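The data layer described in this paper is built around a simple, fixed record for each protein. Such a record has a labelled line for the sequence and another for the backbone structure tokens. For reference, a complete record is included directly beneath this paragraph.
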Amino acid sequence: MTPSWRKPVGMLAILVLIGVWCILVASLSRLVGGWHPLLQAAFYLIAGIAWIWILPMRRMLAWMETGKFR
């Protein structure tokens, strides 16, 4: 069996997406820093989980395994 190129490419793409998402969330830290601590915690919890659903992480992982996005 020959190694698939999809896994290394997919891993790099996921790392790039995580980096972009972190920069996006961190750029909001000045605004969020003025909020009540419970609201801040909720924001960062939601922002930390949301990238899995907003960005096509499931589809990316499926593509890495099967070669199909569905």
